[in-house]
Amino acid sequence: MARDSRQAVLDRLRSRIVDEVELPSLYGDDTISAVAIGFDDPPRQFSDTVEAVGGMCVQVGNLGEVRAHLEADELFANASNRCSLVGPEIPGNVQLEEIEDAHQLANLDYVVARAEFGVAENGAMWITDREIRHRASLFITQHLAMVVWRGAILSNMHQAYERIASPGTPFGLFVAGPSKTADIEQSLVLGAHGCRTLTVFVVDEL
Amino acid sequence: MHWHDGALWFVRSKRDRIAASLPEWERLRATASQIKSHTISNLPDYLEQFEENARKLGVQVHWASDAQEHNEIVFGIIQKHNARRVVKSKSMLTEECHLNPYLESRDIEVIDTDLGERIVQMRGERPSHIVLPAIHIKKEEVGDTFAEHLGTEAGASDPQYLTEAARQHLRDKFLQAEIGITGVNFAIAETGGFVVCTNEGNADLGASLPKVHIACMGIEKLIPRFADLSVFTRLLARSATGQPITTYTSHFHGPRPGCEMHIVLVDNGRSLIRDSSEFRAALGCIRCGACMNTCPVYRRSGGHSYDAVVPGPIGSVLSPTVDTKKHRSLPFACSLCGSCTDVCPVKIPLHHQLLAWRKEIAGHGLLPASKTVAMRAASFLFQRPRLFSVAGNVGRRMLRMLPNSLVYNRLNAWGMDRDLPVAPTESFRDWWRKQNRINGNGTDADRKSTTNGNAEKTAQATHASRDRDEEQHHG
Question: Which end of chain B, C or N, has fewer beta carbons within 10 A?
Answer without folding.
Answer: C
